[in-house]
Backbone:
């Protein structure tokens, strides 16, 4: 079990409080996690990975994206070294919030190529309909054709598919039959089994009423029926509803050959651990920020050390709940902030200028929670960078 390696840190810094006062915060004892997977895993675990913006590009960040490709791919190699898969070009990569389809496709192509060079490391990539403007989608057939276009592009690149939810379908779909016609048609054409992504409207308000109803019980009936009818073409389903009981209920109804991938960034530890009736695999945005701890915890679970699993992963849950707090769609800011604190990139600049979506107080609390969970891989660097950020917001060291 990974125990703290220092009795107490000598590092401290000034952090803002909710009452507008400033506290002197002393860092906790640090924990060191392996940089590469040690042992084996008995869960399939994906990290939905962020992209690193190019801060020196001469572009208009609100209008066009610029990616630092070297740093972006290096981060994926870090994920693969830890035994985790990469869920590529998903909402964590700011798909639909700064990352357009042409840039997403280039990201997928580069990532698949890097995965092959890494010994066929695990990567699945998002295919959706986001190149079709919602206002231009006039029929269900338009949605089907848009899915077909992106699926063909990902498969041409040698990639596996995560079938993303469609804003255009959310606009046009009025019934279970509408959704069944789209998914049955698309799934009938895929080369290899896909992961279906059910993304709740807390992550994307444009997806409200997905599956043709605002009633989540009815929606679950619809999606389970579609998946089980196409089980041979479905590797699994990722559920991002932040409702652990719905996920548990759903995984018990799935065809036995279909995996449940938890997308619950509030309750993932207990869902992955599971119970006597089953467990969830993982496809999580928070695994981007906590990859070393997640890898080590999962290796402990595979070794039969469930206490060790919870000892490591349990303290990460408060951080995740903070990063994914409402408005949940702004969670990417916390993910990239953690990557900057931990030295995976040398700036806190985001595609679309999204670094501005969280407050100074939010980022200060993120720092405290990351420290308490032992997730600052280089506390000296993290503290120095936190002080730099705070100085730009009026809090002098």
Residues:
């Amino acid at each position: 079990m990974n125990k703290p390696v220092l009795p107490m840190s000598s590092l401290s810094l000034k952090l803002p409080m909710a009452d507008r006062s400033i506290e002197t915060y002393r860092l906790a004892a640090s924990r060191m996690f392996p940089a590469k997977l040690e042992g084996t895993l008995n869960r399939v675990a994906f990290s939905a990975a962020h992209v690193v913006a190019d801060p020196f590009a001469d572009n208009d960040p609100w209008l066009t994206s610029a990616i630092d490709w070297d740093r972006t791919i290096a981060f994926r190699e870090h994920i693969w070294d830890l035994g985790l898969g990469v869920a590529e070009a998903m909402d964590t990569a700011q798909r639909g919030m700064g990352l357009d389809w042409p840039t997403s496709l280039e990201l997928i192509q580069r990532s698949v190529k890097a995965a092959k060079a890494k010994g066929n490391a695990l990567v699945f990539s998002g295919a959706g309909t986001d190149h079709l403007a919602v206002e231009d989608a006039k029929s269900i057939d338009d949605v089907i054709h848009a899915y077909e276009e992106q699926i063909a592009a990902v498969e041409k690149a040698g990639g596996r598919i995560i079938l993303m939810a469609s804003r255009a379908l959310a606009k046009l779909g009025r019934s279970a039959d509408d959704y069944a016609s789209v998914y049955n048609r698309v799934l009938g054409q895929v080369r290899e089994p896909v992961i279906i992504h059910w993304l709740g409207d807390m992550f994307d308000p444009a997806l409200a009423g997905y599956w043709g109803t605002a009633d989540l019980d009815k929606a679950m009936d619809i999606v389970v029926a579609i998946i089980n009818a196409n089980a041979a073409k479905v590797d699994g389903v990722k559920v991002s509803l932040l409702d652990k009981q719905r996920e548990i209920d759903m995984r018990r109804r799935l065809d036995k050959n279909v995996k449940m991938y938890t997308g619950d960034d509030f309750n993932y530890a207990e869902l992955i651990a599971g119970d006597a009736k089953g467990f969830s695999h993982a496809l999580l945005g928070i695994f981007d920020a906590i990859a070393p701890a997640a890898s080590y915890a999962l290796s402990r679970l595979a070794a039969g050390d469930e206490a060790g699993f919870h000892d490591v992963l349990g303290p990460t849950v408060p951080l995740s709940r903070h990063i994914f707090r409402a408005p949940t769609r702004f969670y990417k800011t916390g993910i990239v902030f953690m990557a900057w604190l931990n030295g995976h990139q040398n700036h806190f600049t985001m595609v679309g200028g999204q670094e501005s979506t969280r407050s100074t107080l939010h980022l200060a609390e993120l720092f405290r929670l990351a420290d308490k969970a032992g997730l600052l891989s280089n506390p000296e660097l993290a503290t120095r960078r936190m002080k730099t950020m705070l100085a730009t917001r009026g809090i002098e060291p």
